[in-house]
Predict the structure.
Amino acid sequence: MNVPGYSPWSVTAGEQPTTAYWNILGSNDAAFNTFLSGANLIPGNMDLTAFPSFMAYPTGSQTVTTSAAAVQANTKVYDNTGSYNTTTYTFTAPIAGPYRFMGQGGASNTSTSRLILGIQVNSTVYNGTQNSDTYSSGTVLLEIDLNVNDTVQFTCQMNPSVTMTLDSGVGSTRWSGSLIV
């Protein structure tokens, strides 16, 4: 981290720091305080709206097949940085850093199949739990470092080849993501 006004210094074990060193330390404290308060990172001044976070869910049913497809989460519960697109069902990272994503969903069918939920980052899919039954449900959790403009989608698919209908509504199927602060 490059802090304007910071001057590195050191002392040897057992050495009594000189007045000049103590003055540098005082200047460094002031430089750090100015730097951190300007970025709203000091507790009490923390502005969480600057950190990306969202939650979205589908309002209509979605047919799930063997091909991985984005969950059609077209309704936002919250999206404090406007980074989630309800038309493409895609989150685009506005800043680089570590993120946590969670998705959960359920689907009904007439035979035993596996609902496979995943989080897709750019072109790589990370699959979560897979449940096999006439009502399949699952979750996926992913923590990953993203770069600016990396894209993320919540995906679903079935195995074996059976068509299922993904449940809709925030209580059944939803996904969320946030920068880990």
About this structure: The mean pLDDT is 76.
